[in-house]
Each structure stands twice: as structure tokens, then as C-alpha cells.
Design goal:
Strand content: 15-25%
Mean pLDDT: 86
Helix content: 25-40%
Structural class: alpha+beta
Number of helices: 6
Largest sheet: 5 strands, antiparallel
Shape: globular
Number of domains: 1
Amino acid sequence: MNVAARLVAAALLAGAHAATAAADEALICFNYACKDTAVVEFDEAELKQVHGQFTDATTPEAEREAVARAVGFLYFFAGQRSPVWRDRGGNYADGEVEGRMDCIDHSTNTTTFLELLERRGWMRFHGVGERVERGRLFSAHWTAQIVERDGGAPFAVDTWFLDPGEPASIFTLGDWLDGAWPEGRSFWLNGR
């Protein structure tokens, strides 16, 4: 192979590696309203654990449970490389700590994590939807969304209620828009 052909082959391999490596990274935000950001890289051992959540996901319902756990894993790993491990569910339990997250941060990060799962082909029954808002002004709350493929139902994927690393709360979008909260949580426990 001549020098030019080797350079072209090397460039193609480098581009393929960069495309693969990009799927292992996520730009996350924190400190309320995505004031600050960090790039976190997930290694193959971590991604193997995340992928393992989908082993028995043979129905849309089982896949939603896998998505909830996988997002929790990704938040846990992200917390090892960024200050988001300091966040606590809701808006008040974490005070003014570096790494605190409001629903804007959570919905943005969760959407990023869902896109990573989708790029890797681990979500067979769902696609990533647009972020969704309920309420307005002082009571506004944002979440990520997945939608069953082939015209199926939309679901809210909300990580704001609990600490990073815990499985996401998943509700039908209609229930979420009507004010659904995870069992055992309330406005008074989470606050705004």
C-alpha cells in the first residue's frame, strides 16, 4: 500500500474511532438552568453495566424499566466525574452546593443520556422525544421524554425527584402532565 493510501486508511480509522468515542461522552449541565457544564466520558466497563439493564427488555414495559435503571447508572457514573453527585432530589435539599440541579438541568441531562442509549441501539421499542414542560412561571417543571416507536404512547422520564444514581421515574406523559409524582414523594419532600 502506498503512503497516500495508508494516510487515507488511517484517517478513516481515526474518524471511525472518533465516532465511536463520541457515543461514550455526554455533555451534562448543572448549577440550575444549565449555568455550568462538564463533559463526562463513560468507559466500556460502565457502558457494559448500562447495556446489561436491557438484557431482559423484550417488551416496551420492560424496556421502560431498563431505561429508568440505565439513566440512574449514567447519573451515578457522571457523578464520579463531575460535581452532580452533590445534587439531592428536588430543589431545596441540596442548598447552594456546586453540582446542584433543577428540572432544567435534569431534563437536559436525561435527554442527553437517552440519546446515548438510542445511539447505541439499546432502546428497541422507544425513541427519544423532545423535553416537555408542565405548569407555567413559578410552578413550571421540565422532563425528558421517550415515545413508543410506530406511533405509540409518550412517556415522561423524570430524574428530578430523586438523587442522582437512583432510577428515573417514568410516567405516561398524560399522568405526568396532570402532576404525577413518584410514590412516597410530595411537593413538601422535594420542594421546588
